[in-house]
């Protein structure tokens, strides 16, 4: 009876899982290949290629067209080199599905599929050998670290409660000054020094740059200096080998990635994965093209590959194969690796419907998952603009956020010219764009959209849909931008303006986001696009923590200020419009009041004034008795003194925060 009940429970669980997948797949009975005219079954799209391991046998399934004729499965002893141990012809068992079963225990062996276009591990490999050229047969249960079963963060929070810290594995820990043992590895983020730094800073979400298996770093030559951000996907569903301690052993990268997630979760820090579904490293050598050509990419009207990604190709999320791949891939990272959110690279290349399906899938099964992305493409896409997930269409994608470049460029200057400054350089004309960012990119009666850069209409329905930031990996870091736009700037002035810019970010109603190392005044030697620059350019210099202790102190206290006072993170558009009041000011000033005690804040009538002028400025405020908590680059929530009356003086190039 017990065995029967267990079997029944297993069948019900399987049925529930299949039903959940079916809700995410296309509703049409079949999809037509644009190349061969072959009908692709939704069953095939539900699973793509799959490897089912047991000690007695391993079953391989491949998603490929019938015109492939002979599809060959090869089994190898190693991840690179050597002759096949076994070659098996796969059977065309279903529309779009080839299968083969190999008897015996294949754990630790490697495999490739060959449809006549070159060997590859398929499109959905879950484990690979060195450099990702061959799939690997593993028992995923053996990759779970201790405590993994109870690891997942399920609590859904107001997303404006998040403080996102964007980091690259090598940047963060590679320098000797880091004092971290596993430099440039997943395991760096399991070490006490790394965890303690993040906790002291106060961040509660780490956005890690692409950590799937990417193509541009040769994992067989890790003794040779190599660097890349990783925006060149190879195997989307496997951790990158160069960030593991042994890229030759498939289970190592998987387990170490999970250990990293587990350590961050134990510290109360969520993990956000940077995902790049908009393009592949190349076309002819891609796993997509080698299994089922031309159904994952867009072409222009004249039959050429479209290049909305700026990387030589763009994927077609509106077509069922790519859409379903994205759904399954993102779900897999949440299921298997307990990922808490996704930053979608060039989200504007993808279509609105696909993004909404992804959001609906997570709302149903993992509602705590946060999704945000770049609301633009890098070029013109071969798909109607009105159907793309660009920033202007965020209102059509509830629960999905986008980067607010209006406030970013209003603070530090335009992306297109590193030498041009803006508000923090003491230049007038950017105040309205900063106000728009402070409101969380929603419609606000006191924001004149005709004076806002880039957007003439509010694009966020809710402030949780706006990512507030002044710098990220994909541009000059803040220190370099200040030096480039203000020639001859001294160190004291640079620090004042750096802190001023971040005060705007962390007192805004959007979701705050910072680039790793800003808290220690990092620079990248003036390099704008450091995607493949050496460690000497990208690494964090941890000695800066002792050189500029006031910077870390300000950042950490600014983050604590935001976390301790819900008035800065109201999370609702109507609530923001009710409580956020901008005060009349002159050029190079932005001032606002958070009226009353919004969301039960312990402080009443909080006032924030940002002064980028090179001299102190007087600002009229509602008459009252106030406690000053931020002044001249110092934050103390217990108070820095009091002021009374209807006017205050704001020191040059700094922020003033006070409350009644």
Give a structural overview.
The protein has 660 residues and is α/β, with parallel strands linked by helices. Helices cover 26% and strands 20% of the residues. The chain has 16 helices and 28 strands. The strands form 6 sheets. An 8-stranded parallel barrel has the order 12-13-16-17-18-19-20-21, surrounded by 4 helices. Strand 17, helix 8 and strand 18 (370-373) form a beta-alpha-beta unit. Helix 7 (320-337) packs parallel to helix 8 (352-365), helix 9 (405-412) packs across helix 10 and helix 12 (491-506) packs parallel to helix 15 (549-564). The protein is elongated, with a radius of gyration of 26 Å. The chain starts with a helix and ends with a strand. 53% of the residues are buried. Residues 1-30 have low confidence and may be disordered.
Alpha-beta content class? alpha/beta
Strand percent estimate: 15-25%
| Number of discrete helical segments | 16
Relative helix content: 25-40%
Main β-sheet description:
8 strands, parallel, barrel
Q: Any idea what the shape is?
A: elongated
| Radius of gyration from the alpha-carbon trace, in angstroms | 26 Å
Numbering strands along the chain, what is their spatial order in the largest sheet?
A: 12-13-16-17-18-19-20-21
- Terminal Cα separation, in Å? 69 Å
Break the fold down into its secondary structure elements and pairings:
Blueprint (H helix, E strand, L loop, with lengths): L1 H23 L6 E2 L6 E2 L1 H6 L2 E4 L3 E7 L8 E5 L9 E4 L1 E4 L2 E7 L6 E5 L4 E2 L14 E2 L27 E4 L1 H5 L18 H10 L3 E4 L3 E3 L18 E7 L10 H17 L3 E6 L11 H5 L28 H18 L3 E4 L7 H14 L4 E4 L26 E4 L1 H8 L18 H8 L27 E3 L9 H8 L5 H16 L4 E5 L19 H4 L5 H4 L1 H16 L8 H7 E3 L6 E6 L11 E6 L5 E15 L2 E2 L6 E9 L3 E6 L1
Helix pairs in contact: 7-8, 9-10, 11-12, 12-15
